[in-house]
Amino acid sequence: MVDTSVSGRSVLKNGRRWVIKIGSALLTADGKGLDESGIRSWVAQMAELRNQGVELVLVSSGAIAAGMSRLGWQARPSAMHELQVAAAVGQMGLSQTWQSAFAEHGIETAQVLLTHADLSNRQRYLNARSALSTMLSLGVIPVINENDCVVTDEIRFGDNDTLGALAANLVEADVLVLLTDQDGLFTADPRTNPDAVLVDEKRASDSSLDAMAGEGKGALGRGGMFTKLRASRLAARSGASTVIAGGRIEQVIERLKDGESLGTLLLPDEERTLARKRWLAGHLRMKGRLVLDAGAVRALKEAGSSLLPVGVRGVEGVFQRGEMVACVSPDGAEVARGLVNYSSEQVGKVLGMPSHQMPAVLGFAGEPELVHRDNMVVL
Ligand SMILES: Nc1ncnc2c1ncn2[C@@H]1O[C@H](COP(=O)(O)OP(=O)(O)O)[C@@H](O)[C@H]1O
Ligand SMILES: N[C@@H](CCC(=O)OP(=O)(O)O)C(=O)O
Prior knowledge:
five-stranded mixed beta sheet; eight-stranded mixed beta sheet; Carbamate kinase; alpha/beta; disordered N terminus; binds ligand VHF; binds adenosine-5'-diphosphate; about 40% helix; 2 domains; 16 helices; Archaeosine Trna-guanine Transglycosylase, Chain: A, domain 4
């Protein structure tokens, strides 16, 4: 059997796409507003990573803590509507601070506010995926936070670690970095266990980690190591490796990229393409079929291409954008399956058509592919 496992710090040296999540505990200078000098330092390091050719997505917490400081509130409120107001006020300062710090390095940023529910909806998932990949291709750094005004559970539990993992799944990142106020995952919470030692490297799936992470919670950020470990397992599903590391360690981001043994590295059990194929192949219900011509079958199987309408002869079933369809050969054999960019009704209107004619027929300019290669598994 082929060994598809991955190991070691080389995944950080070689990773081309990173999601970096910076938690409230770090960003907010122990509750006294945003730590602007910390932010400038992380930005300088991220700019350096960008120069080395790494594509970056930033997940930034800290809106509630920043809002509390702007509103002059000393203690974190417990009422949901007050938390939401703090997040909304604080988010203004948060995105402004990131934007101006990145601008000093000539880098554009984009504010992206998401909820977990957005990413479990197939259509919104595809929308977010296509917006984020366009940002990355333009060299814009997406700065993601939870859309706190429309959620309640996530605010209550203060969990942007999960959002970081979902972002890593979404953009198919190689690496998820969770920067926090501790140097990594320790064998027990170092705040209460001075003898605890740092875990260097494990499989994310290793069950011995559960007891270490416990349900410990920080004072400002609230998920503790429990949500970080859970996030690493979620990220592993799309083959990403997670590092939990101390954001105040000098030049931590650059040193991780150089392969230095800092923080805790949690590795996936299998590499990315295999993990994604398993996810696509097993987890979604098929809603319809696209009947391909012989040329399109060859393009998918041999050239690794996306599926364009020009090679599609027929459509069966009723489906919406973002749902799973089978791509079948003229004799009905399944060739591939994937997430479709258009509804069955729209596909029916563009069968056999060159992509550049689609906007005139559909009345809007969408993706040129019916199923993008990245959202497809060839069988
Ligand atoms: N085994 C552990 N190793 C390290 N930190 C732990 C552990 N268990 C619990 N913690 C706690 O997790 C906190 C970090 O999580 P959190 O406050 O949610 O940070 P963030 O805002 O960065 O997500 C630490 O301050 C620490 O007290
Ligand atoms: N989205 C909210 C809360 C997120 C939060 O605190 O998460 P975390 O940093 O993982 O503990 C905020 O920006 O304040």
